[in-house]
Every structure is written in structure tokens, then in C-alpha cells.
Amino acid sequence: MDKLLIRGGTQLKGEINVSGAKNAALPILFASLLTSEPLDLQNVPHLNDTATALKLLDKLGVKSERQGHYKVTACANQVTGFEAPYDLVKTMRASILVLGPLVARFGEAKVSLPGGCAIGQRPVDQHIKGLTALGAEIVVEHGYIIAKAKRLKGAIIRTDMVTVTGTENLMMAAVLAEGETILENAAREPEVVDLAELLIKMGAKIKGHGTDKIVIQGVKSLSGATHSVTPDRIEAGSFLCAVGAAGGSIVLRSVDPTTLGATISKLQEAGLDITQGDDWIKASMSKRPRAVDVRTHEYPGFATDMQAQLMALNTIAQGTSVINETIFENRFMHVQEMIRLGANIDIDGHTAVVRGVQRLSGATVMATDLRASAGLVIAALAAEGETTLERIYHLDRGYERMEEKLRALGANIERISSRANQ
Ligand SMILES: CC(=O)N[C@H]1[C@@H](OP(=O)(O)OP(=O)(O)OC[C@H]2O[C@@H](n3ccc(=O)[nH]c3=O)[C@H](O)[C@@H]2O)O[C@H](CO)[C@@H](O)[C@@H]1O
Ligand SMILES: C=C(OP(=O)(O)O)C(=O)O
């Protein structure tokens, strides 16, 4: 298994491009199942998760091709399978997003239940509840969700909580349903909006995306389209936390600052000097950060996917911060590892109290999930001495060439490939 070796204490300086958003690229790739015509997609990040999505699509008979670095064409004109097997769903939960499109277009789908994961239980009951309301007959047996339907029928669906992939799955199902669907309590995340914009280009009739009430008039069929995936606000936010913790001055290009409001505001509170244009952000930090309290929330609140990275900044801040995780019940797995680097953190249920220390010191730590890994990289960049980060396959799921981008900013970081040791 690959590892990262990070020698901390170097300030970051320079410019990098932000990649396309993982959490937008995944539903958008699966939207290819909704039409027999090709989707031409740009700004699709090279990640293990996007590779898994293409593998799953291939298993279903969708032909795809990467052209150049970021362009993917996917064509579902000969779909031959309707099953997302356990081995793929367990490596990537977003595989559940084939459920809506398959039932809507082919009237049939069999998708493995994802099961729990490091950050929480993460059930998919709302996806099932919504599809049932649209008229699908669903049974859950032998670890699989098996759904069948003739043509789905529009309905009013109010999810019990705000769910991002739940909203996406139901929106993809409703675009081909007969009549009107109203999704209440819908997720407002920019990735949901990006998917809706692609679907509209394909001929879907959607209004209200970006609000908590999405109204969809079903159509009989959808066509191909060309679309560029929205920039990754979580990758951008992670690099902003990195410069906040390590110090220095960086410019992020190909980014959408309007999607980063809550993160930018917290980082300014921590002392970063941030300026922005239409598609760039400049961030500088020349002092020790100030501790900032944060409570994770659905968009436009502070993203749970940024919690570990902001915690890394708080570990070396002046003062004490209180971090409340409200979305996932077990998203503090990085705390024990940050403590190994010298952080002073106490957890009580969903709350972490971080007492800022003057310095962290490098150690061997283990990544436990995607954003925990990013948080540990940031803490290691700020630490004195050498940190080895193990199990970085989590990081490779969702960050494109993170170590290369950090090296371009002057960080002392290298990948130790397990292949080199064989
Ligand atoms: C691929 C993708 O886009 N992943 C993102 C998506 O995950 P994902 O879409 O899986 O997360 P949800 O928004 O669905 O989860 C929000 C909360 O609702 C609960 N829930 C959700 C669905 C359901 O049927 N039943 C239920 O109880 C979850 O356990 C969680 O506590 O949104 C999360 C919250 O912003 C992010 O952390 C993930 O990065
Ligand atoms: C939790 C995340 O992803 P996923 O929903 O794919 O597990 C994430 O992107 O931080």
C-alpha cells in the first residue's frame, strides 16, 4: 500500500489548478445511463472513484472513453446489465446512484446495499422511500436492493433529512417519470445543481435546483449533451486550510469561490488574508491561526467534508475551538491520529474540543477515510519533522495528485509506492 512521507515546516507558495468535483462527477457519469446518446463530459477528475464509476458503467454495458486528461465520453446505447455488485459498491458508496437512472429508463435495477463505513452508518432508506413513492416495487434481500417498475409516476416526496445522493438519485429517476415530481427538503449542494444543469441540457425539465424544493416535469426520453464538471470546492477548501496551517501565499485557479462561502468565512476568522475573482482565490497566512468554532451543516453551511481539514488548522491555533459534527455520527476518526502528532483534542459525542498547541511533531499516522486523510496531510505540513501517512488509498479516492499539487506549492512531500518495495 502506498504511503506519503511529509516533512513539515515549509511555507506554501505558488499557484495550482483545482480539479473537477468528485461529488459532481460521480452522479454526472451515472446520468449517462438515462440516455442512449453520448454524454461528452469535461473536467472529469482522474480519481480512483471516477475510475470505479467507469468500471461499474462498463459492467452495465456503457461504453466510455477518456480523451486527453479530463474529457470522458460515455454512451449507454447498449445497456446489458442492471446490477451494481457488492465489490464495487463497498469501495464506493456513490455506486448507489445507478439505482434511480436504471429503474427510470429500464424499469429494473439490482444494487448492493452499501453497508456502514468509517464515518457512520449511512443508510439509504430515503432513496428507497422516494423511489417507492415514484411507483417502483422494491424488495431488499440478500444484501441487495431490487427495484422494478413499469413507468415511474411523479409524486411529492419529502425526505426525512437533507440527503445529497438521495436528492440526486430521486432527481435522476423523476426526469423520466410520467408527470410532476416535487422533491421537498432537497439538498442544495452545488453538486446537486451541477447535475440538474447537465440533466436540463439533456432535455429534462427541472426547476428550483439550488433551493430545498425541486420541481421536475417528467419527459419520455433524454438526449446526449456536453457538460463541464463544476470545480471541486472541497479540494479547494483543503488547500486553503493547508496554507492556513503551513503559512505562505497561494493562488487557486479554476475554482468557483461562490461555492466556498462558509469555508472562506471561517478561514478569514482564523486569520487568513483571502481575495477572490470570478475563478480564482488568493490566500495568504503569515501568523499563527486563531482558533475558530464550527458546526457542520448542509449547504450553504459549513461542509462536513471540510471538518477534518479545519480541525487540523485548529490544532495549532491560538486558543480553544469547539467543533460540532452534525451530519455523520462517527466522523472524528482523525482525532486519535492528530493526537499522535501532538494535538490536544477531547471528544464528547458529536463535539470535539481542540486546544491549540504551539507545535505538532511528525509521527507515523494512519488514514481512516478520505477527508480524515486530507486533515492529516494538513497537520503534517504544519508539524515539525517527518510524518508518514499510511493507507492513502482513501486519499486517492477523492484527491487528484494531491502530493504533486502540494509539491508544486513547495511542500516537502513524496509518495512511497508499495510497488517500489516489491
Ligand atoms: C458522493 C457524495 O456526494 N458524497 C457526499 C454526500 O454523501 P451522501 O449523499 O451519502 O450523504 P447524505 O447527504 O445522504 O447524508 C446526510 C445524512 O443523512 C443520513 N441519511 C442519508 C440518506 C438516507 O437514505 N438515510 C439517511 O439516514 C446519512 O446517514 C447522514 O447522516 O453528502 C455528504 C454530506 O454532505 C458528503 O459528506 C459526501 O461527501
Ligand atoms: C464522504 C465522502 O465521500 P463518499 O460519500 O463517496 O464516501 C467525501 O467525499 O468526503
Automatic annotation (TrEMBL):
Biochemical pathway: Cell wall biogenesis; peptidoglycan biosynthesis
GO biological-process terms attached to the record: cell division; cell wall organization; peptidoglycan biosynthetic process; regulation of cell shape; UDP-N-acetylgalactosamine biosynthetic process
Cross-referenced Pfam families: EPSP_synthase (PF00275)
A single GO cellular-component term on record: cytoplasm
Highest taxon, organism lineage: Bacteria
Positions annotated as active site in the UniProt record: 117 (proton donor)
Residues bearing PTM 2-(S-cysteinyl)pyruvic acid O-phosphothioketal: 117
EC number: 2.5.1.7
Organism: Jezberella montanilacus
SUPFAM superfamilies: EPT/RTPC-like (SSF55205)
This protein's UniProt keywords: Cell cycle, Cell division, Cell shape, Cell wall biogenesis/degradation, Cytoplasm, Peptidoglycan synthesis, Pyruvate, Transferase
Name the record gives this protein: UDP-N-acetylglucosamine 1-carboxyvinyltransferase
Gene name per UniProt: murA
A molecular function (GO) term: UDP-N-acetylglucosamine 1-carboxyvinyltransferase activity
Residues given in the record as phosphoenolpyruvate binding sites: 22-23
Record-stated family: Belongs to the EPSP synthase family. MurA subfamily.
InterPro entries associated with the record: Enolpyruvate_Tfrase_dom (IPR001986), Enolpyruvate_Tfrase_sf (IPR036968), MurA_subfamily (IPR050068), RNA3'P_cycl/enolpyr_Trfase_a/b (IPR013792), UDP_GlcNAc_COvinyl_MurA (IPR005750)
Cell location: Cytoplasm
